[in-house]
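[Structure tokenization] protein backbone as discrete codes
[Encoding] learned vocabulary of local backbone shapes
[Protein] chain in single-letter code, fold in tokens
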Amino acid sequence: MKPERRAMKNLTSSITLAFLGACMITPVAAAVVSPPQEIVCIRCHGGQPGRLGEPVKLWRESIHAANNVACNECHGGDPNDAVNAMSPARGFLGVPKETDIPGVCGRCHVGVLKDYLASAHGRALGKGGPTCVTCHGNHLVVKATLDIINEKRCSACHGYERARTIREAMQQTEGLILSISGRIDGYKGEGIDTERLEKGLFSVRNSFHSLSHNVDAEMVKRESARINAELNGIAASLGKIDEQRKNRRLAGVGVVGGALLAALILYVLRRSYD
């Protein structure tokens, strides 16, 4: 192969690779996180049969386990010392009293505790009203979604009609939050600055979550409409990012295409002089 042909072939291959690179998104490698060492509570109760081991089985499938929130976060005690794991001197609480449950959960979920106590459910605490575990469970705590508001759970205490209205008013909002959150995560993975959008979504999501303990259906509908408007504003900002990325990609394709065309013309000219 003549030197000029070899050079043109190498140039064409390099430009082709650049063209393909301009049209692709390089995935970001996921960080490898080592699982935490199991605490003595898990090691002891995990192998026991019946009621002593059941809480561990349920916990393993919970949102708490997924976030490394273990037994001692709720029950106290020393999670690293088998002798003092259930010592009151080390803060062991055991099973909290019914009226103490919201306070235990509220040590982490401060805002939710405030919303709950202000609600009709919270005002009925100690008078037959539900606590956190009534709706969310105790060991098999799942990620909070609108699926928690369902006829089977709500009708155990009262009629479902008001709860149905509240759920329907919140469904569109929840869908928008999930969609926007996914888009922001995608852009963040590409290295795009999403800090402002993340903060905006965080604030809106908190407002939305505060509605989940409100039983005033009309207020929930009004607030859901307001939150939807804020979410549409965030979506509009994401749309601008989409347009910018599209324009940059088209510009990149144009530049590479022009380079390929120039290389082809140069190659034809050189061939004509052979």
About this structure: Residues 217-273 form the longest helix (57 residues). Residues 101 and 133 are 8 Å apart (CA to CA). The chain has 13 helices and no strands.
